[in-house]
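Summary of Year 1 activities. Much of the first year was spent building the evaluation harness for sequence design. The harness presents a backbone, in tokenized form, and records the residue chosen at every position. We chose the following record to illustrate the format because it has been used consistently in internal testing since the harness was completed.
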């Protein structure tokens, strides 16, 4: 088997693992949305179930990242854009960590605090935008194997969502500083929304990496 065919096969396998990674991240973001709704309702049992699923997903994503690292290492210098593929895999791994961190902080908040000054609606909007952003990344991942040019178009949607989250994040922080008197709840909410903002920044990084991969297809 000649080196060109080996590279094509290795690239296909690597892209398939990247797709598995981002699909699991999408499922985890949906769990974060469910956790947010359960927190507002005060459903502690469902919150714990969501946290457990997210912990499991984070481990699965880490294992996939290790798998893609091994596969890229095996093909070595035969794969021209191996650094871009590895960078993308590591960024996606980081997103899983952000989701777990946000979920932990939200799970320790009091529902009554969130319902004050409609922070519950603010959080649902922010988490909804996170799910939308990761869904766009999932579309980009699929497009890499089917229509790379489409992945570049989707990147504009990710950028637009990142800006919306940034604006919403700033508005929520300003409101929290004036409306929440409990230092503990203020810190938890502040850390949670900062985590969401940081997560979407990571999604933007992943989008940029997908765009680089699309250009090399």
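For this record, the design step produced the sequence shown next.
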């Amino acid at each position: 088997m000649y080196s060109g065919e080996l590279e094509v096969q290795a690239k296909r396998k690597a892209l398939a693992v990247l797709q598995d990674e981002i699909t699991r991240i999408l499922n985890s973001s949906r769990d974060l949305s469910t956790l947010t709704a359960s927190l507002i309702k005060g459903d502690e049992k469902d919150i714990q179930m969501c946290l457990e699923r997210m912990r499991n997903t984070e481990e699965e994503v880490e294992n996939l990242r290790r798998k893609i690292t091994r596969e890229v290492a095996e093909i070595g210098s035969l794969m021209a854009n191996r650094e871009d593929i590895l960078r993308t895999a590591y960024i996606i791994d980081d997103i899983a960590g952000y989701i777990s961190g946000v979920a932990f902080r939200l799970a320790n908040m009091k529902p009554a605090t969130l319902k004050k000054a409609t922070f519950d609606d603010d959080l649902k909007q922010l988490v909804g935008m996170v799910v939308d952003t990761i869904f766009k990344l999932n579309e980009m991942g699929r497009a890499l194997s089917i229509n790379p040019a489409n992945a570049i178009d989707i990147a504009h949607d990710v950028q637009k969502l990142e800006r919306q989250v940034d604006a919403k994040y700033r508005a929520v922080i300003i409101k929290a500083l004036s409306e929440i008197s409990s230092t503990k709840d203020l810190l938890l909410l502040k850390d949670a929304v900062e985590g969401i903002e940081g997560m979407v920044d990571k999604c933007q990084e992943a989008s940029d990496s997908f765009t680089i991969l699309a250009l090399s297809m």
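The chain has a mean pLDDT of 88. Quantitative recovery figures across the full test set are reported in Table 2.
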